[in-house]
Design goal:
Strand content: 15-25%
Distance between the termini: 28 Å
Radius of gyration: 13 Å
Order of helices and strands: EEHH
Number of strands: 2
Number of helices: 2
Structural class: alpha+beta
Largest sheet: 2 strands, antiparallel
Length: about 60
């Protein structure tokens, strides 16, 4: 399943991409932090619903 999303890049260009939901979340987090990879890794917004997916991967299942 692909998600279409329009992103605003730091040079103010817009691009619409079809991405998987996880990759769309990653792009949104990158957009949120002005495309600074190091800032996304340090994101303090742990109450954000997207926070666990910010690295572009599904979180590991912690339930045993």
């Amino acid at each position: 399943m692909a998600v279409k999303h329009t992103f605003l890049y730091k040079d103010n260009t817009q691009m619409t991409k079809e991405l998987t939901p996880i990759k769309a979340i990653r792009e949104k987090c990158m957009e949120c932090y002005n495309w600074q990879y190091s800032e996304v890794t340090k994101c303090p917004a742990t109450d954000c619903a997207l926070w666990v997916y910010r690295m572009g991967k599904r979180p590991k299942d912690t339930a045993e």
